Amino acid sequence: MQQSKQEFQSYQEDEIDLRALFNSLVARRFFIAVLTGFITILAILYLFIQTPPPIYQATSSFTSPSSISVTTINKLNLITETKDSIFSEFLTKLSSKDLQKLAFIEGDFITTFNTDNSPIDNVDEFISSITGSVRVHSPDLTALEMELGFLTELPYSVSIEGNSAEVISKYLNSLVELANSKTILDLISLNQLKIDNRIEEISIQREILLKQAEQDRFSKIERIKEEDSQKIRQINDQIDRSRYKAKENRLNQVTQLTDSVKLAKSLGVIENNFELFNDDYANSDLTIAIGKSKNLPEWYLYGEKALKQRVELLENRTNDDPFIPELVTLNNLLNEVQNNNLLETLEARQDDSPFIAQIINLDLEKIELESSIVGMNGVNAMKLSQISIPLNNPINKPNRILIVLLAFIGSFMMSIFLVLIMGALKPDEKTPPA
Question: I want to staple 35 with a disulfide (CB 3.0 to 4.6 A). Which of 173, 273, 291, 415 is the partner?
Answer without folding.
Answer: 415
